[in-house]
Amino acid sequence: MVWFSHVDVFAVIFIIIAIYIYKNKEIFKLSWRLPGPTAWPIFGNAFAFLCKDEDLFERAVYLSSRYPSPMRIWFGPKFAFVVTNVVQAEKILSSMKFTTKDKMYKYMAVFNGEGLISGSGPKWKRDRRLMTPLFLKKNVIQHFPYILNHTKILAKLLEEKADKSIFNVIHDIQRCAADFVNETIIGIKTNAQGGELENLLENLTRMYTVVHARMVKVWLQVDWIFRFTKYKKLEETGKQVIHGFFREAIRINNETHVCTTKKDLSFRNLLDQMLDIRDDVTNFATDEELVHHLTTLYSASEDTVSTISSFTLMLLGIYPNIQSKVVEEILSVVGDRDIEEGDLARLVYLDMVIKEVLRLFPIAPFLAREASQDFQLDEWTIPKGCTVVVSIQNIHRDGKLWMKPNEFYPEHFLPEVVEKRHPYAFLPFSAGPRGCLGKPYAYMAMKIVLVTILQNYLVEAEGTLEDIRLKTDISVRTKDEIYPIRIRRRKK
Ligand code: HEM
Ligand SMILES: *[C@@H]1O[C@H](CO)[C@@H](O)[C@H](O)[C@H]1NC(C)=O
Ligand SMILES: *[C@@H]1O[C@H](CO)[C@@H](O)[C@H](O)[C@H]1NC(C)=O
Ligand SMILES: *[C@@H]1O[C@H](CO)[C@@H](O)[C@H](O)[C@H]1NC(C)=O
Ligand SMILES: CC(=O)N[C@H]1CO[C@H](CO)[C@@H](O)[C@@H]1O
């Protein structure tokens, strides 16, 4: 090595960097024209993100609000074109050139595989087309009585906590959601509310943490480093427990599944309906791919519905006047009886309240896509392969779109106000070809849960909206993952 002088070493490094820049010259040209925090070679904006895991979210929101749209961020050597403006967001999200999920999603694919959320390309396109009918309103409405039954168990179990001290409501809602998702989507009856799913649920929660850690900690993306960390072991157990559970579900459903040419219209769970698809389209999914679809649907539904319902109860506790209005509406539309399908569309104010919660706490605050072809956005050319991030969080707090961006103000969703607003101003379910398929299911489930709880209990919470600190792994949550409320029995 003696004959290698310092000069040679520098020359080699210089050449490597020059080749790297030349190969990515379109990206560097674009980066040069965009505003953003000072970036360093190799490290990019990593120094701007030097903070605790749980502070990353607030840091990202802060950074993206300081520059006009579009801006640039360098995640280490990885460039991202960041959009925080509603008109540009529409152009990206509605385009077929942005249906490829960014490589970040591959860490989610460890347990979601090529399911609908992490998949891309022709397989995603075909599966989405085949599975879309499963999520249409008229199919989803058949799940109503099953969800209601589990929710009534929840209301009963909450009696134990009524008129006592503060508790973490998501714990109870999550177990209820696990049971109804299990019955309506996975097609097995479970008793999580009786404490039988603790292993599965806790392993899932851990898995979300591992996925997120790999997304944000660049070094964990190097497989051989990852293998030596504690995360690897967590991932292995998690995968075994989760996939084992869904494999068993497929075995059970496969046994009872009847292959018919004329499908009857009575209730059938989603897994059974996926087996229907497989009867017709033989290469639709192997058993392993079905496991991926189920894991995807499970985490897409159970986690989101529980989180948003819990946020809603907490806010109704903080804003008693809004809670009174919601309860008044429930009394006039539903009264004392069980909620029925026909009530859903008539709970107009509750609908506005849920939407306002989704505006303040969008489950997916940042969406990352990859350009599958060159794309012209206004005066910027986004090269093929470039990562584009759409910041829903910034759009949801944009003072030009919302009268009171940082307040809990359900009147943002009065029909006459909605009509005047840009259609892409409200994006909790994303939009366009990769938008959420589960929206009708989600609204239905959340309304059943909230109505049933509020019919029985008055909700109280301490603190203010500003006190609620957020973090994100695969979804936005409170920083401590606690949703504290107190409940009092309503006098009938
Ligand atoms: C409040 C509840 C929910 C919210 C806020 C929500 C939000 C979202 C968002 C933002 C995406 C896009 C993710 C991305 O691009 O990375 C998405 C995708 C998806 N969601 Fe939901 N979701 C909810 C409930 C559900 C439910 C209950 C189901 C299933 C029954 C579901 C199924 C899906 C599926 C299958 C996709 C992937 C669509 C595709 O890429 O083709 N979601 N959801
Ligand atoms: C709901 O519960 C009631 C009473 O326990 C039962 O009769 C009914 O069959 C259940 N409905 C469904 C859809 O499971
Ligand atoms: C995950 O599942 C395994 C096997 O059932 C169990 O031993 C472990 O305690 C679970 N992990 C958590 C965090 O619950
Ligand atoms: C499902 O059933 C079919 C036919 O009854 C069988 O060939 C197949 O192996 C089963 N698959 C699973 C996962 O049990
Ligand atoms: C973990 C758990 O509760 N699983 C249950 C799911 O439903 C099946 C079929 O009813 C039960 O056998 C499992 O025990």
TrEMBL record:
Pfam families to which the protein is assigned, alphabetical: p450
Q: Which residues form a coiled coil?
A: none
Gene Ontology terms, MF aspect? heme binding; iron ion binding; monooxygenase activity; oxidoreductase activity, acting on paired donors, with incorporation or reduction of molecular oxygen
> Which InterPro entries does the annotation name?
Cyt_P450, Cyt_P450_CS, Cyt_P450_E_grp-I, Cyt_P450_sf, Cytochrome_P450_Monoox
Question: What residue intervals traverse the membrane?
Answer: 6-23
Q: Which UniProt keywords apply?
A: Endoplasmic reticulum, Heme, Iron, Membrane, Metal-binding, Microsome, Monooxygenase, Oxidoreductase, Transmembrane, Transmembrane helix
Required co-factors: heme
Q: Which GO terms describe its cellular component?
A: endoplasmic reticulum membrane
Per UniProt, subcellular location reads as:
Endoplasmic reticulum membrane; Microsome membrane
Which annotated residues bind heme? C436
- SUPFAM superfamilies linked to this entry: Cytochrome P450
Membrane topology term: Peripheral membrane protein
Q: What does this protein do?
A: May be involved in the metabolism of insect hormones and in the breakdown of synthetic insecticides.
Sequence similarity: Belongs to the cytochrome P450 family.
Q: What is this protein called?
A: Cytochrome P450
Q: Organism source for this protein?
A: Anoplophora glabripennis (Asian longhorn beetle)
